[in-house]
Amino acid sequence: MNVQSTVNVGPYIIMEEISEKKRLIFESALDLIRERGFHGAPMSLVAGNAGVAAGTIYHYFKGKDDLIRELYAYNRERVIAIVDKAAGTGATRKERFFNIWNQLYEFYNQNDNVLIFFEQFLNSPYNADKSPNHLRGTLYSFFQEGMEAGEIRQVKPELLIVLTFGSVNSAAKLNLFSQVPLDQSDLRDAVEILWQGIATG
Amino acid sequence: MNVQSTVNVGPYIIMEEISEKKRLIFESALDLIRERGFHGAPMSLVAGNAGVAAGTIYHYFKGKDDLIRELYAYNRERVIAIVDKAAGTGATRKERFFNIWNQLYEFYNQNDNVLIFFEQFLNSPYNADKSPNHLRGTLYSFFQEGMEAGEIRQVKPELLIVLTFGSVNSAAKLNLFSQVPLDQSDLRDAVEILWQGIATG
Amino acid sequence: MNVQSTVNVGPYIIMEEISEKKRLIFESALDLIRERGFHGAPMSLVAGNAGVAAGTIYHYFKGKDDLIRELYAYNRERVIAIVDKAAGTGATRKERFFNIWNQLYEFYNQNDNVLIFFEQFLNSPYNADKSPNHLRGTLYSFFQEGMEAGEIRQVKPELLIVLTFGSVNSAAKLNLFSQVPLDQSDLRDAVEILWQGIATG
Amino acid sequence: MNVQSTVNVGPYIIMEEISEKKRLIFESALDLIRERGFHGAPMSLVAGNAGVAAGTIYHYFKGKDDLIRELYAYNRERVIAIVDKAAGTGATRKERFFNIWNQLYEFYNQNDNVLIFFEQFLNSPYNADKSPNHLRGTLYSFFQEGMEAGEIRQVKPELLIVLTFGSVNSAAKLNLFSQVPLDQSDLRDAVEILWQGIATG
DNA sequence: GATGAATGAGCTTTCATTCAT
DNA sequence: AATGAATGAAAGCTCATTCAT
Question: N or C: which end of chain C has fewer CB within 10 A?
Fold first, then answer.
């Protein structure tokens, strides 16, 4: 099955497999965009680095726009899966929050091409309305329930969501791209700053 | 004196004047990039919307790269000027922090073309090393002095800087581009969350 | 017996059978070319609309050129068959001429895809020398004999042939593609105009 | 003035001048299409044979479609001008008809690229409705007045128009592209056949 | 015979840049 | 300084054709 999407299999949401060719094209595009931006990722190069002919991409995607958008949807699912999994691990809400933050950080840190791609995509005309994403879903419930339990400050959940993603992104970019690498202690600082701000008392 | 740069005049950092034509070109480029991305801002359109001929741009800029980079430098100065000014207003450190955050938010909220441009630029190949910016300067001293005074948590100042900018950006984008507009109360929440996280006791 | 050609079987010229697949491919190509021109009839679409795979066409034709040329040859035979049949029906030469003209008109009127295809083909590089067709054969003899019998004006038979086909085509295209539909009376006008011009006395 | 169109200057309809570059591009396209068809006339070749760069064409035409359509409109005007001029020369209606037919024949005979282009264009998807052209205008009035004067058979004028053009085209193509060249006597035959058919008495 | 994924040459078109005016 | 016609490299994409299955 080539269409990237999700299916419900028992209690878990899993990503359907994507064809090997599609994965190669995704990987190639992701790396090129990270390295050279949308403009520096012509279809010919995406194809070349993926080891396929230029025309082959058009069997899997309607065009460059479609490729970019599917690339985003695919990686968005990866991030959602990380949040979903981390949100289920930990005894306390605080522990679960720390797990979410740390797992996201770890993911971006090891997949800086996704991090860069996301930021390029979200602020580009490909993402027509430039709306932030992930505003619904697990994280929304996580914060809402925390507020109901009196553990989280009464704030619009969407605000908490974007502050969380913003915090992870800022830390990851600082570590990856500046002369200021972050060690474990710095990361604890970063997540504690956020938690202390959003937790009650 | 067309080259955009900064000079120290007594205690103030001021921006040198830029020619009217340059300003028109900047404005045109900023709007086009916001609306259509780098890819949708060809020099001919930048020129057209600025009311000049295509060739004219090349009297002011070496090429498109140069234009983009100068556009960034110019707006970076605007942001620095806002931080510098806000950092000097307020009785307490907390007040000054709130002013900085709010002034930045206000600026991005009223200049979403700058916000979008920044995010596109910083993650693009134009910004070769993708290094976050603003890591030195007024904000650095602001946090450092706060730590020395025991009012700010002992954390790498660069981390505090990116978290601050990240927080402002996240809030501004949420307000501008989502279906979740932020009112004054939400904004107070946002800045308080951050301050509570970085302030001691 | 897939190769399309003609054989003489007794007094009749008959078309050899063509395979069902070939017929489907011909029909598909004819309709696509009529609707979208050569340029809008890619092999993949021809195959798709014929209900076969792209590769299958290459079992029946050497390539697109070959397909087009065979398509022409096939329909040329259909037209020749119509002329041949009509030329044998009618008591007088005039009656037979009217039958030829009317049968041709009827054929084109009911097969506008053939009409359009012919005009596209004959003026295209597929028909390298752009030579008009049907210059020999039944119609040639028909006119020659008419001249010998003193019933037809002494003119180069080829001229009479192209004027006849031109007259039928012009009328059919007027009826099919303009806002000026032709009724039975108009058709009689058309053929009478031609006959009055070529008949003696 | 670059836009090809017509203006009324006193009693004459004249064609506005078109720019030299445009004329070169038209000429190049016409020759290539004649020689190789639409498919064999890529923009790069059209440009090359016109002595301009590929991009230059796009200063004068929106795209290939636009070029083709303007090419048609331009040559259509040339043909209309010929008819208009010839229709005004000659003492009798018959003389004028002969002049129209002969001038048209002469034009196509000397501009076979126009003849071939017309036939390709009219039957192609460029001419979306495939409607025959020239159905109104000078020729329409010519036949209508002839009928009112009792000199021309009572027939739908549009039918007479397409028969006239069809007759000229058939003769020109026979002469140009077959092994049957037409001499002056043949041409007189051709036009007399038509006139005898459409004239009364 | 039949398939359709894969190929890659070649198409139309865009656009940063130049330069004669 | 200012113009904008002209350039031509390079982009996205199509499609006739092949070939492993």
Answer: C
